[in-house]
Amino acid sequence: MKRYKVLFLLTLVFILALSLCSCGNDDVEAKKNYPTKTLNVYNWGEYISDEEDSEYGLFDVNSGFEDYFNENLADVYGCYIKVNYSTYATNEDMFAKITNSAVAYDIVIPSDYMIQKMLSTTNGSGEPLLLKLDFSKLTNYANISDDFKNLYYDPTNEYSVPYTYGMLGIIYNAEFVDQEDIDKQSWGLLWDEQYKGKILQFNNPRDAFASAMYKNNWDINSKDPTVWTNALDELKLQKPLLQGYVNDEIFNKMKGASAYIAPYFAGDFLTMAAENEDLNFYYPKEGTNYFVDAMCIPSTSKNPDLAHEYINYMISVEAATANALYIGYASPNKAVTESAHYQSMLSANYDTEYVSAWEILYGKTKEEANINYSYNPAYMNYYSDESVDIQSVVNSRWEELKTENSTEMWVHVTSIAIVVGVLSYASYDIYIKKKRSRDYRMRDKAKKNS
Amino acid sequence: MKKKRSVMHAIAAAPHIFWAILFIILPLIIVIFYAFTDDSGAFSFDNILSLGEYVPIFVLSLELSVIATFICLLIGYPLAYIMARAKPEHQKIFVMLLMLPMWTNLLIRTYSIMAILDDGGLLNTILGTSMHIVGTKGAVIFGMVYDFLPYMVLPIYTCVSKIDKHMWEAASDLGCNTFQVITKVIFPLSMSGVISGVTMVLVPSISTFYISQKLGGGTFELIGDTIERQFVTGAYNVGGAISLVMMILILISIGIMNRFSEEDEGGIIV
């Protein structure tokens, strides 16, 4: 009986929880009898403002869009809207999902080189994977700085609306790294033997090879395999100095001072510096990677009109400011960067004793930037599309790097000892059993005979 | 009567068969398809033939997981034995304590271990040392042992606790001391538990990629990392080929293990 009571209580809790969940959706249903359409948005993780915090200028942008649409545009489109938001971790994951999944996404936010790849890839009917945008519907498009139009991945500016951009630089711990090494402002810091065991490197071939290529002023988009071989040699030199090849572990390792030097993106550096004031940052003088993530509509979209409204909302001053402050990456939206509200909030959120967030994100001092919002062109240097051949060249070299000197003697010795030990035990066991049964048989025979 | 029962059987089995086809057979066919085709979808042996360059990675994965499995056995067998010999009310607590870490996701546990063992992590801060642990093979083996130990203990525990207590008394009567009782009677009788424990630790250890990425510091790759990287970079065909070969190798090694345990009753069935 007791058991039934417990079961009953559990069921009750479950039902209550369920009903609470469904209650949350009720306020979406409004007075008029329009159907509710779902807009599938597919974005990077942690890449949209999703908390209410008026002090820091943040609000939940997705529900902000739903409210805005359902109030102002429901009559125009004859429907209410519900945003179905999901996230991915890499451009490649997103690409695989778009090409294979049954879900028709309405908005994706890929990086530059991936947009180029999606435009050069065609679906079954010979169309590119992205839809041409109707810019007449994007009334806020004037907010986007001209510097981010007609870039290499979308030269005719028909398919994408820039969302954020950022640059790669070197993060260092000022407490442990000498000023004279910092003054060189070079990628060479990642190869400095003085900091052996305290240096991190990207765990993806593209960025790791690029750092070696920048260091030596080689073309990071080279189609010449020997350049990649030379870069491999550089990385092999670096490998003994590294603490590891890492991705998002960089955050914890740098914050906790497990490592002192790492290459990473400016926007993420600001998040780290907010928790460890010893961290500082520079853009290497040899040049660095510059990326743009832009909003696009996949050609599989079921609601391109609504998707346009979403993009238009995202580049409005309110939403773009909240996103820029939340993500901490630089914004290509001049309505945002020119606003005093954004500038003061940015500095309130991210400035530390040594670091001016504005200077790091936009490459210029605040004073200069008040006159000219644009980024510093000296840092501009794009990754461009990798042809399939170069990609396999890069992959095979990366493999070589990872397998080089990867085994140690004690691993061989111990594992072989274990295998030999287990096998000899097993065969001894079998031998004993056979011997024993033979002995029994002999004894039985002897008994019978006597 | 007989016919009626077979219809019932078919109805009862239908969801399982459907499940097996959808999530086991179909993915297997897809893996095999990718392994034997090239980019354009034409039949080719190139992927399988190109696997030679991955042999060192295969060997390293196998070695590390063999060591980890052996350590699991060394730690796990005495633990399982003690648990099985404890009072029934204590046994429940033991089992729960053993399962407790498994309530937390494996990825989170591994990530936390990384944070604890890191150069500037909790352990080094408390001890005031600067040991370099994360990034070594030892750390990866530790991670495997930590994550998969319960899979070793539970089958052995089940097996040992099923052994009749009178076996112990009989062995003692016939002149065995405590050590001999364990080595000559209990251990051979619990062999099927040991075999399934070894399998349940060895197989996930060989194919792990998260543990080696986080605790190995990315300076070396295990076969799981290689497969993951192939799929992430879009090289489905090579990834499929490696997966296929690995599955076959695991099948062979389980087959060998079952061979050895055939003498005893009931090794695990693949």
How would the blueprint of this fold be written?
The complex is a heterodimer of chains A (450) and B (270).
Chain A: H1 2-23, E1 36-44, H2 61-72, H3 74-77, E2 80-88, H4 91-100, E3 107-108, H5 112-120, E4 161-173, H6 179-183, E5 199-202, H7 205-215, H8 225-238, E6 242-246, H9 249-255, E7 261-265, H10 266-273, E8 279-282, E9 290-295, H11 304-314, H12 317-327, H13 334-337, H14 340-350, H15 357-362, H16 366-371, H17 388-403, H18 409-449
Parallel strand pairs in A: 1-2, 1-3, 5-6
Antiparallel strand pairs in A: 4-7, 4-8, 4-9
Helix pairs in contact in A: 7-8, 8-17, 9-10
Chain B: H1 2-35, H2 46-49, H3 55-85, H4 88-99, H5 106-117, H6 122-127, H7 137-162, H8 165-173, H9 178-189, H10 191-207, H11 210-215, H12 223-232, H13 236-261
Anisotropy-based shape of chain B: globular
Instruction: Write down the domain tally of chain A.
Output: 2
Question: For the record, what CATH class of the largest domain in chain A applies?
Answer: Alpha Beta
Beta-strand fraction estimate of chain B: under 5%
Number of distinct helices of chain B = 13
Low-confidence stretches of chain B: 265-270
Based on CA inertia axes, which overall geometry of chain A fits? extended
- How many strands appear in the DSSP assignment of chain B? 0
Number of domains of chain B: 1
Head-to-tail CA distance between termini of chain B: 33 Å
Q: What is the name of the CATH topology of the largest domain in chain A?
A: D-Maltodextrin-Binding Protein, domain 2
SSE run of chain B: HHHHHHHHHHHHH
Mean pLDDT of chain B: 88
Largest sheet of chain B: none
Subunit organisation of the chains: heterodimer
Structural class of chain A, by secondary structure, is alpha/beta
